[in-house]
Design a protein that fits this description.
Low-confidence stretches: 1-45, 47-51
Largest sheet: 4 strands, antiparallel
Number of strands: 6
Number of helices: 6
Shape: globular
Structural class: alpha+beta
Order of helices and strands: HHEEHEEHEEHH
Helix content: 25-40%
Length: 238
C-alpha cells in the first residue's frame, strides 16, 4: 500500500504529518538553545540570595572602583570656586558641593590642594566614616588638617551653621571619634528620603535669586545658633 493511501486511511493527510513533525523538531531545537537564566529558581529561594551583595561604605552607599568610567562617581566642578572634586553624581553631588561652596565662601578660601573627594577603598579603613570617600559620598576639605582644633572658634560656628543648613543629612568628622575635622559626609543611606528632599531644596535655592551658597548669612543669629546647637546634640547622641 502506498504512503498516500496509508495517510488517507488514517484520516490525516501526509502533508500534515510532515509539517507537524517539522514543527516538533524545530521546537525541540529551540529548547536546546534556551538560556539558563530562563530556568526558574527553586521554590522558596529568594532572588536576592542568588546575587552577591555589593560592598558598601559605612553609610550604606555602594563602593566604586574608579571615577569617570562606568561609575556613579565623576569629577564635578564646584560652581563659583574654580575647584573640582570627584563625587557621586545626583543628589549627593548637590549636597556636598553646597557644603564645599559655603565653606569656601564663609570659612576659608580653598585652593585645589585643599579639596579631595573619591578614593579607592584600599587606602581607607573599612567600616569607618572615611570609607564613605570610596562611595563618592564624602569630601575632605583641607586634607591633613583633621586634628581637633584645626579651626578657629568662629570658623567652627560657621561649620555648625552649614551642617544645620543640611538638616542633619551631612555629618562632620569633627564630631566623630577619632576626630577628623577635614571630613564631611552624607550620613543617610541611599534609600533615605531626606537625601532627595535636601538636594531638591538646595537646587531650588540655587535657582532662586538671593538664596543658596554665597548669600551672606548671620551665623550668630539666635535662631540659627539654636538650630545648630540642637543638631550637635542629636548627632553626637547618635
Amino acid at each position: 500500500m502506498s504512503d498516500n493511501a496509508r495517510s488517507s486511511m488514517s484520516g490525516i493527510p501526509r502533508r500534515t504529518l510532515v509539517k507537524g513533525a517539522g514543527v516538533i523538531a524545530l521546537t525541540a531545537a529551540a529548547g536546546s538553545f534556551a538560556p539558563a537564566t530562563a530556568v526558574a529558581s527553586p521554590a522558596g529561594t529568594p532572588l536576592s540570595a542568588a546575587r552577591k551583595k555589593a560592598p558598601t561604605s559605612a553609610n550604606g552607599w555602594t563602593l566604586e572602583e574608579e571615577a569617570n568610567h562606568v561609575s556613579t562617581v565623576w569629577t564635578r566642578p564646584v560652581p563659583g570656586t574654580g575647584l573640582e572634586v570627584d563625587v557621586r553624581i545626583g543628589d549627593v553631588e548637590a549636597i556636598l558641593l553646597h557644603v564645599v561652596r559655603r565653606y569656601h565662601y564663609e570659612v576659608e578660601q580653598l585652593n585645589r590642594v585643599d579639596l579631595a573627594g573619591w578614593q579607592r577603598i584600599g587606602g581607607l579603613e573599612k567600616g569607618r566614616p572615611e570609607s564613605n570617600l570610596a562611595s563618592g559620598t564624602a569630601v575632605r576639605i583641607r586634607p591633613g588638617a583633621g586634628a581637633s582644633g584645626s579651626l578657629f572658634p568662629l570658623q567652627v560656628l560657621t561649620v555648625r551653621d552649614i551642617l544645620a543648613d543640611c538638616e542633619g543629612v551631612v555629618r562632620w568628622g569633627g564630631d566623630d571619634s577619632p576626630v577628623d575635622e577635614s571630613l564631611f559626609y552624607v550620613d543617610r543611606g541611599p534609600d533615605d528620603a531626606s537625601v532627595r528632599g535636601l538636594a531638591d531644596r538646595l537646587r531650588l535655592a540655587e535657582a532662586t535669586p538671593g538664596q543658596g551658597a554665597g548669600v551672606a548669612v548671620d551665623v550668630l543669629a539666635p535662631s540659627r545658633r539654636e538650630r545648630a546647637k540642637k543638631l550637635v546634640k542629636e548627632q553626637r547622641a547618635g
